[in-house]
Amino acid sequence: MLALARSGTAEGLWLRAERQTGGKGRQGRAWASPEGNLYISTLVRVRPGEPSPATLALVAAVALDDTARVFGLEPLLKWPNDLLVDGAKLSGILLERADDAVVIGFGVNLAHHPDDLGRAATSFAAHGAAPDPSVFAETLAEAFARWLSRWRDGIAPVRDRWLARAHPKGTALTARLADGSAIDGLFDGLDPQGALILRLADGSARVIHAGDVFLL
Predict the structure, then answer these.
(1) I need a surface site. Which of 15, 43, 112, 194 has the fewest CB within 10 A?
(2) Which strands sit side by side in the sheet containing 88-89, from one edge to the other?
(3) pLDDT tens across 187-204, in order?
(4) Span 108-135, pLDDT tens digits
(5) Dihedrals phi, psi of 194, to nearest 5 degrees
(6) What are phi and psi of 90, to 5 degrees?
(7) What DSSP string runs through 90-142?
């Protein structure tokens, strides 16, 4: 998809793999990709005057959340774009930039989930039947198109839906930053641009623009 984006492929293309031999997540981490799960990417062409491209992470999250609910699960969102069921990770979303395009990759545990991550993971199959990947993909594409259209008019509706589907304010979180440091605090919402707000022990607020966030 990155190569297609650089070659001028129009926005709206979706590319799905039955399985992957080199799947990756954030910071190049390996992403187990057996057949039966969803591995799919799309691209968005960023236009002048639109919200920050980084906030497409929230668009992807609310679109995937809508889709999960169509198929019977009711996840909670964790910043910026993880879906959790009973505290276990259901999916991953990765954004990568190529010139004026943002490639958004989704990995969703439909039929399988790993049990060797050092943190809990889950799948649709663990909570009932696993959706067919192609049907799930069609529903996701429709939801993403709806939310992308709203995002282009301003981030507020996306931010509001994200907050409505997130874990409650006051949830204890830790944010691991790129420099290796970690910050513990309580979830205190999102700033107007979608960045994470942590309320620290001294009562001050810390705005997190990038990092790995975990429930404590």
Answers:
(1) 15
(2) 76-78, 82-85, 88-89
(3) 999 999 999 999 999 999
(4) 999 999 887 678 899 999 999 899 999 9
(5) 90, 5
(6) -95, -25
(7) -EEEEEEEETTEEEEEEEE-SS---S-SSS-B--SGGGSPPPPHHHHHHHHHH
